[in-house]
């Protein structure tokens, strides 16, 4: 399947919005049109678009398309909630619609922060013209989209250099592997990705590093000296129950031709043991790189369910860095620590069934298969919280935050 790996397509002239239906990936590439905040809410809730930065961008762009269709009707059927002749009413209804949008997914802070910014624009705008308000929100939304991409490249570079520097300090030379969970790549963002962006950047640096004669190596580390370690393999976790790792990250890695071996979430310990004792002939895992949905002021981090287990297991193996990679928009300074983070619980059927594709000629038929009795009680938290104690560094677009005396200063 050919794909541009773009989760979000927004035409800035016509202001039309389409999102890639990620429930169909890797089987089918289908973009869904978004005409309203209700459409935005639905695709976020159903996780047709997911990943903290991507849902914030789609959320804000859905506000823009709703207003655009309302104020410049283009034939789309949009339910009208507003009285545009009464500006106060218009603004109040819009704010209520935005509150509804935010309730789609509670854990990732990016959506609620971006929507707070839009509400600020609405409340502080001196204009009486809905059209002018739309222009102001549009300026904010397109900047959010553009900044996310720029910041992801910076995150990628900062994380990759940090890892190579760290290996240099350990006097480690040669190939190494990394582990990652969920999908934090192009599909979860405006492009490149956060944790997977670090993997991409590491791969780019590593390709150059590996293929270059020692005497002519270009500087790869922050201190200006040549790095002698290179990424050779990525281990993405399957990431049950939604399988973002096997469906989306594996797909991105195959697409980018980055050597990768998929493992299930319960294989982490055996993989690390097996590499250490030679049962599996792969380079040692030197870093675990994960994304984040909300980072509390003390560095505690909510991320995809399974991240905590990954952090705990990898902490048993000396020399493995555990890094969180996220834009500063994922930091929530108002949240003192992880105990205050609301963890979304998803429907039981997401655990009782698995979604898969059956080849049907040239295309795929998507089916849900029962993998548990329908009557079984289920607990399905979508995220977990990893304490800052287990995190060595938080990679942002501004650099890598590390701890002093065991504390992050955020
Ligand atoms: O439930 P999801 O797929 O939205 O969860 C995504 C994650 O947990 C990601 O790691 C996080 O949002 C960062 S994406 C750049």
From TrEMBL:
Record-linked InterPro entries:
IF-2B-related (IPR000649), IF-M1Pi (IPR005251), IF_2B-like_C (IPR042529), Initiation_fac_2B_a/b/d (IPR011559), M1Pi_N (IPR027363), NagB/RpiA_transferase-like (IPR037171)
Q: Which GO terms describe its cellular component?
A: cytoplasm; nucleus
**One Pfam family name from the record?**
IF-2B
The yes or no answer to whether the keyword Isomerase is present is yes
Q: SUPFAM superfamilies in the record, alphabetically? A: NagB/RpiA/CoA transferase-like
GO molecular function annotation: S-methyl-5-thioribose-1-phosphate isomerase activity
Q: Which residues are listed under the site Transition state stabilizer?
A: 182
Q: Where is the active site?
A: 293 (proton donor)
Instruction: Give me the reactions it catalyses.
Output: 5-(methylsulfanyl)-alpha-D-ribose 1-phosphate = 5-(methylsulfanyl)-D-ribulose 1-phosphate
Q: Does the keyword Cell cycle apply?
A: no
Q: Which UniProt keywords apply?
A: Amino-acid biosynthesis, Cytoplasm, Isomerase, Methionine biosynthesis, Nucleus
In the record, biological process GO terms are: L-methionine salvage from methylthioadenosine
List, alphabetically, the Gene3D superfamilies matched: translation initiation factor eif-2b, domain 1 (1.20.120.420), Translation initiation factor eif-2b, domain 2 (3.40.50.10470)
> Where does this protein act, in terms of pathway?
Amino-acid biosynthesis; L-methionine biosynthesis via salvage pathway; L-methionine from S-methyl-5-thio-alpha-D-ribose 1-phosphate: step 1/6
The EC number(s) this enzyme carries: 5.3.1.23
The record's subcellular locations are:
Cytoplasm; Nucleus
NCBIfam families annotated for this entry? eIF-2B_rel (TIGR00524)
Role of this protein: Catalyzes the interconversion of methylthioribose-1-phosphate (MTR-1-P) into methylthioribulose-1-phosphate (MTRu-1-P).
Q: Which family does the record claim for this protein?
A: Belongs to the eIF-2B alpha/beta/delta subunits family. MtnA subfamily.
Q: Protein name, please?
A: Methylthioribose-1-phosphate isomerase
* Naturally occurring in which organism (per UniProt): Saccharomycopsis crataegensis
Gene designation: MRI1
